[in-house]
Amino acid sequence: LLQLSLHLRVPSRYGKHEERLCRPRGRLPARCAWFLQELPSFLVPALLLALRSPPRLEPLGCRLLCCLFCWHYFYRTFIYPFFTRGRPFPLQLLFFGMLFCIYNGFLQGYYLIYCAEYPNDWCTDIRFTSGLLLFLLGMGINIHSDLLLRQLRKPGEVTYKIPQGGLFTYVSGANYFGEIVEWFGFAIATWSLPAFAFAFFTLCCIGPRAYHHHRYYLKTFTDYPKSRKALIPFVF
Description:
- By secondary structure, the chain is mainly alpha-helical.
- It has 2 domains: 25-122, no CATH class; 125-235, no CATH class.
- The protein is 61% helix and 2% strand.
- The protein is built from 7 helices and 2 strands.
- It has helices at 2-9, 30-51, 60-78, 91-115, 126-150, 174-190, 193-220, and strands spanning 27-28, 89-90.
- It has a two-stranded antiparallel sheet.
- The radius of gyration is 19 Å and the shape is globular.
- It starts with a helix and ends in a 16-residue tail after the last helix.
- Its main location: endoplasmic reticulum.
């Protein structure tokens, strides 16, 4: 809630919201920064599983849930950073991002590996199946939107353009919308307090950023489609 309160007023100062007079000191290339920031969310659950003797990921539902979390962060760590064309990333924000990923990776991994107890038929439960569908839908939207954003720039370009296609037809923050849907789907499939806490924080963290992106586009581009919403499509 504190994150939501702070960033609804002032966006995080990186990317298109970076202050123009800010000196380019204390920064890492975007590819390196994203790799380092997202790595703990993949590495920490993997280490927790390796340290558990014997491994405890029973029943099948528990294994699938842990795989969903690691699958997302495998993409965010080992695939997404090497295609991004973003601007250099501030070290201060990188530090706090890594702290969050370490803590959240531990929270989700520890719960699923050491604490979670699911019935043997959890994979057929409506909570698991509906949550899984939401997770896959959100991840698909997120990955597709990232692809559309990358295609806006040629190698070496740093200018911002109007996103087109996909869910960007309806919302300015299609990539953020996809990630929020993804983690609420994970929370429903997991049906746990740690997962719902993560989904809620995701909403409070990137929801305001989508809002500020929307305001930036409206202010910067006179031909920006007025019918687009900030984050939630089909809301008037």
